[in-house]
Amino acid sequence: MEYELMLVFKPVTQEDIKERVFPKIEKASKDLGGSIKVRDNMGKRLLAYEIEGNKEGFYLLCDLTLDPSNLAKFEKKLSLNNDLLRSLNIRKDLV
pTM higher than 0.90, yes or no? Predict the structure, then answer.
């Protein structure tokens, strides 16, 4: 099944996201038989409210392909990532 995945990271540099943070998320999806690719790098933006003391976040919009039975496992792995402030999965057929 295909999903849109919005990721909001702590305000680190774009190089940190590419080299250190995103590969962990990419590996988590591959371990569960899925794939993920960045569709839109939205960059650093102000948050509507503070999250964990952060006023800014680094936004990535991704396309995720993953079996629905593995989605909960993937979300659990996302929640363990300390650099991730928020994430949202939406099935593409509902968009």
Answer: no
